[in-house]
Specification:
The complex is a heterodimer. By secondary structure, chain A is an alpha+beta fold. In chain A, helix 1 packs antiparallel against helix 4 and helix 15 packs parallel to helix 16. Chain A folds into five domains: 142 residues, HPT domain (Four Helix Bundle (Hemerythrin (Met), subunit A), Up-down Bundle); 167 residues, no CATH class; 55 residues, Orthogonal Bundle (Helix Hairpins); 181 residues, 2-Layer Sandwich (Heat Shock Protein 90), CATH 3.30.565; 146 residues, Beta Barrel (OB fold (Dihydrolipoamide Acetyltransferase, E2P)). Chain A is elongated. In chain A, strands 6-8-9-11-10 form a five-stranded mixed β-sheet. In chain A, 47% of the residues lie in helices and 21% in strands. Chain B is α/β, with parallel strands linked by helices. In chain B, helix 1 runs parallel beside helix 2. Chain B has three helices and five strands, in the order ββαββαβα. Chain B has a single domain, classed as STAS domain (Transcription Regulator spoIIAA, 2-Layer Sandwich). In chain B, strands 1, 2, 3, 4 and 5 form a five-stranded mixed β-sheet that branches. Classes of the chains: A alpha+beta, B alpha/beta. At the A-B interface, helix 7, strand 2 and helix 12 of A face helix 1, helix 2 and helix 3 of B.
């Protein structure tokens, strides 16, 4: 891996930590004292700081250091978690995000903001904790050190009883050693006499310290260098990180005590003859002091935890991270394979070669399985974006002084990664709308007999080859009369038109439609809902609105599981081949040249008494040639309206891998992609909703419903 | 600076309040105060909520006092939860344990604490 790849990998990992941190902060805002959450936030900061230093993002490392210090003080119980700390942490988290990707966040990234945040965090840390500096030291070595070999030492430090007279404070030495790594300190207090015999100038305590660190023996000895003549110091290596010991249980208590010289073998053998816990037996027999047993048990537990920690990475290796581009490439290759396989089958059929046909069938089975598996790899739980919305709700409700809670359901519902990525912006827009227009202020809600806190419920569920997403808020609902009046004002409907709720609500998706009386920074500008609709339609999905005035608004979005493959209906006009998404196809009807001329080229067809307008693909794509006597109209339904497509022939159903059109076709409306057919030829995949929009604009095409109402 | 005050509560329980610096410079004063109080009552409670500094000698003296109280068939305990400054030193010293020493017959060791 090159350096830039390492840095990219770090960016990805840091992004995950930032997402986790964001969620944790929001959860902490609800439960300020939750130790697990505080620990989780601290770990995220700690890892961010350490790995950013390793990958030369020194500005991030330095910036994160101060936040981490505050979280460490909170974690260690030296400071209380407050809303202020959390609010600052959220701002700091955003700054780290911009620092990670300076090119995307240049407007928001702000050095003076970071300096101000750093000052605030420092003030919080210093104001509350005088030992802040030493506490910070504790976290530093592990944070920045790359993975090195670690040793576990047993250190017995027995200062001479006169050490106080030398002006030495042994606790400082013990602390300094303990801070070299993960440690356990056990003081032996057995020599402390009764108070009436106590000499206030003497040190009676000695220590056993179990320390796991990547530092060498010299670093430990270095701590004691000024007292080496005033103490007994014994340092023993008792475990190493690259030892392949599978035994989590480490040594038995008796073995540790024997090794330390705390007990003799013969005494041990004698006591083992009785049947109690060894520690109790030894103490009862007066062979050993309790503190020695305590120290040995601490050592046992420390080593057990160390070894368990070393085993963990091996257990989790079953999950690997793969860059998204590699997956896209894989999907493309599978697409090619499916195409070649189709050609193979076609060739075998043409040659009437049964042996080849049998191989082709086998290849077909395998490639279809491979395609399903590959598509499955691209699936992500929708919960990954749901969590982001919690932040949107939090920030916006604070800004608008509303109380809003977001609840979610069906986070595990999986969708193609591309769909999920493209879904983010429309959903954010809808949620912002719900908070701004839907949910009332707490006082208004209370006056209406509703709970002060509004709820936005986001849910997802599978429905066949589709996923249904619902956004439901318990706000004021849509004002039908205001929508109707605005619709008339904008010339979208006749003043006398009687529309169903569904039709009325669908007006909201028209360009520039807004009933908001005031334009706010959040919404009301009338741009948005039409963009949302277009975004959803570009994902081959549909969107619908429902509302109960004063009570709720529900937005339902229906999306295909994946954008990479499509179930389509293959049709032909001359030699041109087109695929219509099967999801929007209702039926196919035949139409004769005579029926067409009888309608005076109005491009209308009567299907079981209902007038359905149609679009001629021949005219739409300027295809030369003479139409056959008998043509087909493929009837589709988009947003509740039926529109047909006039084609020469309907070939049949076709499941295919979607290929992007080149940059040259970027501005061509009505084509959402292309696919390669079995014989190697190309078929264009049609963007049905956009074609209908285009036809409406160009020809003033009306939906069947409006025509029938207008007479 | 160290301030010691001793109060009897009337039920043979005495409360010794230690305020200020529990450090080696004041070790003799602390020891004598504890000896006097333990001579006066069987149930001595320590109030150290207003200490400002603590060192190892203080931890040792309290341990010695607890043993002495047990020897006199008395009882020594904390009157109120000790302050953080005290807890920090207890943690750093590593005196916390799961079982008291051989003198701790009534399981009242000062270091059998969740926070220690």
């Amino acid at each position: 891996m090159s350096e830039s790849q390492f840095r990219e990998a770090f960016r990805e990992e840091a992004q995950e930590h930032l997402t986790d941190l964001e969620n944790t902060i929001m959860e902490l805002e609800e439960r300020l004292d939750d130790e697990d959450l505080i620990n989780r936030a601290f770990r995220s900061m700690h890892t961010l700081k350490g790995s950013s230093a390793m990958f030369d993002f020194t500005d991030i490392s330095a910036f994160t250091h101060n936040i981490e210090t505050v979280f460490m003080l909170v974690r260690d119980g030296k400071m209380k978690m407050t809303k202020e700390i959390l609010s600052l942490s959220m701002q700091a988290r955003d700054q780290i995000k911009y620092m990670l990707n300076p090119e995307t966040g240049s407007e928001l990234s702000n050095t003076s903001k970071r300096e101000e945040l750093t000052k605030r965090f420092k003030a919080i840390a210093q104001g509350q904790d005088k030992t802040g500096d030493t506490a910070v030291k504790e976290a530093s070595p592990a944070a920045t050190a790359p993975e090195k070999k670690k040793y576990t030492y047993r250190i017995r430090f027995r200062p001479h009883s006169s050490i106080f007279m030398m002006g030495t404070n042994p606790i400082l030495l013990v602390k300094e050693v303990a801070q070299l790594g993960r440690s356990k300190v056990v003081a032996h207090t057995d020599n402390i006499p009764f108070l009436d015999e106590y000499d206030t100038g003497l040190c009676y305590i000695f220590w056993d310290i179990i320390l796991t660190t990547d530092k060498g023996m010299d670093a430990i000895k270095g701590v004691f260098v000024f007292v080496e003549d005033d103490c007994e110091l014994k340092i023993t290596v008792i475990d190493e990180s690259d030892s392949f010991s599978e035994d989590l249980d480490y040594k038995k208590l008796g073995e540790i005590l024997l090794e330390r010289g705390d007990i003799h073998q013969e005494d041990l053998d004698e006591v083992l003859g009785t049947r109690k816990l060894l520690g109790d037996m030894l103490v009862d027999a007066g062979l050993i002091q309790v503190s020695h047993i305590e120290a040995a048990l601490v050592e046992q537990e420390h080593i057990r935890q160390e070894r368990q920690g070393r085993q963990r990475p091996e257990e989790t290796i079953s999950t690997i991270k793969v860059p998204a581009e590699k997956l896209d490439r894989l999907v493309n290759l599978v697409g090619e394979l499916v195409t070649v396989q189709a050609r193979l089958t076609q060739m075998a059929v043409k040659r009437v070669d049964y042996e080849m046909l049998s191989v082709a069938e086998e290849v077909e089975r395998l490639s279809s399985e491979l395609r399903d598996n590959t598509m499955n790899i691209r699936m992500l739980p929708i919960g990954t974006i749901f969590n982001r919305f919690k932040r949107v709700v939090r920030d916006l409700s604070n800004e608008l002084k509303k109380e809003v809670e977001m609840t979610t359901e069906g986070e595990a519902t999986e969708l193609d990664k591309t769909v999920i990525e493209k879904l983010n912006d429309p959903l954010v827009h809808l949620i912002r709308n719900s908070i701004d227009h839907g949910i009332e202020t707490p006082d208004v809600r209370a006056a209406a007999g509703k709970p002060r806190r509004g709820t936005i419920h986001l849910s997802a569920e599978h429905s066949g080859a589709h996923v249904l997403i619902h956004i439901r808020d318990d706000g004021m609902g849509l004002d039908k009369e205001a929508i109707r009046l605005k619709g008339i004002e904008r010339g979208l409907i006749n003043a006398s038109a009687e529309l169903s709720d569904n039709e009325l609500f669908s007006l909201i998706f028209a360009a520039g439609f807004s009933t908001a009386k005031e334009v706010t920074s959040v919404s009301g500008r009338g741009v948005g809902m039409d963009v949302v609709r277009r975004a959803i339609e570009s994902l081959r999905g549909s969107i619908e609105l429902n509302s109960v005035t004063g009570k709720a608004t529900i937005i339902s979005i229906k999306l295909p599981l994946t954008l990479a493959i499509i179930d389509g209906l293959l049709v032909k006009v001359e030699k041109g081949q087109f695929v219509l998404p099967l999801a929007s196809v209702i039926e196919c009807v035949s139409i004769t040249a005579e029926q067409i001329s009888r309608a005076h080229d109005n491009e209308l067809v009567i299907v079981r008494g209902e007038i359905v307008p149609y679009i001629s693909l021949r005219k739409q794509f300027y295809i030369d040639g003479k139409s056959p006597e008998l043509q087909q109209v493929v009837i589709t339904e988009v947003n509740g309206a039926r529109v047909g497509f006039l084609v020469d022939h309907v070939v049949g159903e076709y499941q295919t891998v979607i290929k992007k059109l080149g940059g040259l076709y970027k501005n061509v409306i009505g084509m959402s992609g292309a696919t390669i057919l079995g014989d190697g030829s190309v078929a264009i995949i049609l963007d049905v909703p956009r074609l209908i929009d285009l036809a409406k604009q160009e020809q003033g095409l009306q939906t069947n419903r409006n025509i029938s109402k207008g007479g | 600076m160290l301030n010691l005050t001793y109060n009897e509560t009337g039920e043979d329980i005495g409360v010794l309040s230690l305020m200020g610096e529990l450090v080696i410079a004041n070790a003799d004063e602390i020891k004598n105060g504890l000896l006097l109080a333990l001579g006066d009552t069987k149930q001595l409670k320590l109030n150290i909520s207003d200490v400002t500094e603590v060192d190892l000698s203080c931890i040792q003296i309290l341990c010695a006092a607890h043993r002495f109280a047990t020897k006199l068939k008395g009882h020594l305990s904390f009157a109120v939860e000790p302050p953080e400054v005290f807890k920090d030193v207890v943690r750093a010293t590593g005196v916390a344990r799961h079982k008291g020493c051989v003198h701790d017959v009534n399981n009242s060791c000062l270091w059998l604490r969740d926070w220690a």
